[in-house]
Amino acid sequence: MPRVVKRKEHPLSMRLPAADIAIIDRAANLRGRSRTDFVREAAVRAAEDVVMETAPIRMSPAGFKAFTAALSKPGLPVPEMIELLQRKAPWESGK
Fold first, then answer.
1. Where are the domains of the chain?
2. Long-range contacts of the stretch 31-36 (C-beta < 8 A, 24+)
3. 42: how many CB neighbours lie within 10 A of its CB?
4. In b/e form, how buried is each residue of 8-31, taking b as 16+ CB within 10 angstroms?
5. What is the Rg, in whole angstroms, of the alpha carbon atoms belonging to the chain?
6. Per-residue pLDDT of the chain (95 residues; tens, 9 = 90+)
7. What does the pLDDT read at residue 22?
8. Res 94: pLDDT
9. Distance between CA atoms of 82 and 69, rounded to whole angstroms?
10. Distance between CA atoms of residues 70 and 77, nearest Å
């Protein structure tokens, strides 16, 4: 008897203007990816961003108290950031 294989993939079809296809193909080629791989990765990344924006953050009362205490403390200077912000921009250095 033939073995029934459960599909792991589901087709997704879209109608797009030629200009959209052209820019997608250009970007996919620049990344060395197929159109399908490029669009799938971009769509999944966008979906994950939306889900993460709406996901509730849960913590215990003690954890929340520690979190708010950390936010209430004054920030500490980061020497590398200070140096970076004091550095002249490339167009200001005259090189």
1. 12-69
2. none
3. 13
4. eeeeeeeeeeeeeeeeeeeebeee
5. 24
6. 667 767 678 888 999 999 999 999 999 999 999 999 999 999 999 999 999 999 998 999 999 999 999 999 999 999 999 999 999 888 887 65
7. 97
8. 67
9. 25
10. 15
**Which three-class secondary structure string do you get for the chain?**
CCCCCCCCCCCCCCCCCHHHHHHHHHHHHHHCCCHHHHHHHHHHHHHHHHHHHHCCCCCCHHHHHHHHHHHHCCCCCCHHHHHHHHCCCHHHCCC
- Which positions ≥6 away from 41 have C-beta within 8 Å? 33
Residues 22 and 30: beta-carbon distance below 8 Å: no
* Backbone torsions φ then ψ of 18, nearest 5 degrees: -55, -35
pLDDT of residue 95: 57
What tokens were used for 70? 């950390």
